[in-house]
Amino acid sequence: MATATVTRQPLFSRPRSSHKGVWSWITTVDHKRIGVLYGFTAFAFFLIGGFEALLIRAQLARPNGHVLNANQYDQVFTMHGLTMIFLVVMPLSAAFFNYLIPLMIGARDVAFPRLNAFSYWVFLFGGLFLYSSFLLGGAPNGGWFGYAPLSVQKVTGSVPFAHNMDYYAIGLIILGIASTVSAVNLVVTIINMRAPGMSFFRMPVFIWMALVVQLLLVFALPIVTIALFLLLFDRILGTSFYIASNGGDPVLWQHLFWLFGHPEVYILVLPAMGIVSEILPTFSRKPLFGYPVVVLSGIAIGFMGFGVWAHHMFATGLGPVANSAFAVSTMFIAVPTGVKIFNWLATMWGGRLRFDPPMLFAIGFVTMFVIGGLSGVTHALVPHDYQQTDTYYVVAHFHYVLFGGAIFGLFGGIYYWWPKIYGRKLSGKLGKWHFWLMLIGFNVTFGPFHILGLQGMPRRIYTYAPGMGWDFWNMVSTVGSFMIAGSILVFIYNAWHSRKYGEIAGNDPWDARTIEWMTSSPPPEHNFDQIPVVHALDDFWHKKYVEDKGGKLVPVPAGGENGHSEQAPEHEAGEHGGGHGIHLPSPSYMPILAAVGLPLIGYGLIYGFYISIVGGLILLGGLYGWAFEPGTE
Length: 633
Fold this sequence. Notes:
Strand 1 and strand 2 form a beta hairpin. Helix content is 62%, strand content 1%. The protein folds into two domains: 77 residues, no CATH class; 489 residues, Cytochrome c oxidase-like, subunit I domain (Cytochrome C Oxidase, Chain A). The protein has 17 helices and two strands. The longest helix has 36 residues.
C-alpha cells in the first residue's frame, strides 16, 4: 500500500487539481492520458496516410492516370510510407505500451512520467514538421527508404536546391528521439516497477513483446540516426559519404538503413503479436499454449532480426557468399515466427471460442500474417528475389505483414481494451461489419499485387501504358482500397457512438486473465488503490476460478480465499483519485516546451541558423525548468 507523502509543487507547474480542459492535456504526465494522446494522434495520421493511399490507387486504377503528376506521386507515395510506419504503426503501438504497461505490471505510472510526456510531444512535433514540408516547397520524394545517391541530390524536376529530403532526414531524427526516450523509459518501467510476485515469467506475453520492442528500438535507432546525420552532412555541408564520384559509397546507406530497417519490421509486428497472445486465450477460455516457448520465440526474433538485413540487398551485388549467408539467416528467422503461429492455433484448438470483434481481428492477424510470411520466405531464395525485387510482389508481401499483421492486431487491441479505457464497449455488430469489410477489402486490394508483380509491374511507377496486362488487376485493387476506407468509416462511427451510447462494460467485460482488469474501467488516476500481489501467471484468472476434483473450472465465491478481496476497485473515490493519500507527479509544461525546440532547430538547419539558435534556447530552457522539478514525489 502506497503511503502519503508531503505535497510539494514543482517549479513552474500547475497543481494537479487542474484535471479538465485543454491545459490539463497539455501538461499531463499521466501515462493513461499520454497513451490516449498517442492513440488519437496516430489515428489522425492513419486517416491522412489512408487518404494518400487512395490517391495512389486512384492514380493507378487505369493506364495513363492523371490524378497526380510524377513529382506529386513521388511525394505522396513517400509520405504514405513514412506516415504508416513512423506516424501510425509505431505510435499506435506506443499508445498501447503507455496505457497498459503500468496497469499490466501493477504499477502506478511509468518510471519517468515527464520523459513520457516529452516523448509524445516530440513525436507530435516531428510529424507536424514532416507534413509542413507540403506547405514549404515540397514533401520528401525519395521513398521511405531514402536510397542514396538519389536522396543526396538537391534538384527535384525543374526546382533547384529543393529541401524535400532535408525534411526527411531531420523529421526522422526528431521522431527517433521520441522513440528512443520512450523506449528507455519503458524498459526501466518493466524491469524495475513490476508488482510484488510478478517475476519475468509471470509477466503477460504483451509485456514481454513490449520489452523486446523497446530493446530493439534502443539498439536499432542509433544506426539509422547515424545514416541520417551522414545524409544531412552530404546535403548541407557538402561531404561525400554517399557520393561515389567523390569517393563515397551509396551502398553504405543501404547497409545502415536496413540494419535498422529489418529490426524495424519486428518493432512494428511484435506489439500486435503480444496483443494477439492476450486476446486468443481470453476468447478461447484457455491458457496460452506453450507460454515459455512463445516468449522465447519473441526474444529469438529480436536477436535474429539484426542478422537478416541484407536480404533487402540481394540485387546490389554483394556476391554469392554474402547472399547465401543472408538467405540462410532469413530462412531461420521464419522458425520462431512459425512456432508462435502453431502456439496460437493450439490455444484455440478445443477452446470455447467466442467470436467477438477482438477475436475476429486476432484470427485475421494470424491468417493474413501467415500469407505475408509465406510470400516473405520466397524472398530468401536469391534467384527468386532477383525476379521479385522492385516489383509489386514485394509491395504485396510487406502489406500482408504490416497491414494484415500489425494493423489487424492493433485493431483487435482497440476493441479488446476500449472498455478498460472508456468503461463502455464498442458495438459488436458494427465491429463485425468493420472486420469483414476490412478483411475483404484488404485481400481485394493487396492480393492482386502478387499477380501484378509476377507479371512484371515495377514498384514506384506513377503511370503505365495500356496493353501491359495490368489494367484489370489495378482496377480491382483500387476498388478494394475504397472498401478498406469504408470499413474505417464504420469504425469511426462505432467509436463516436459508443462513447455516449455504448454498453456499460463493467470492470471485467471479457472474463479476462491479466491484472489490468482487476481495477475499475476506466481506471482511477493512481491505477490501483492497493498494489496487487501476483502469485501466478494469469493471476487474475486464478483469483476467479479453481478446478474441482474433475478438473472442471468453477468460480471462486466473491471474497473467498482466491477471490477478489485483494483488490477491490473503488473508482467512486473520484476521477482525481481524491482521498487515496497517494501523491503522484504533478503536471508540467516543461516537456512540451522542450519538445517545441526540436523542430525549430530543424527549420534552422534548412532555412537559417538563427532559427536553430532560437530552437536550441527553447529546448535548453525547457530542460532547465524540468531539472528544477522534483524527480521523486
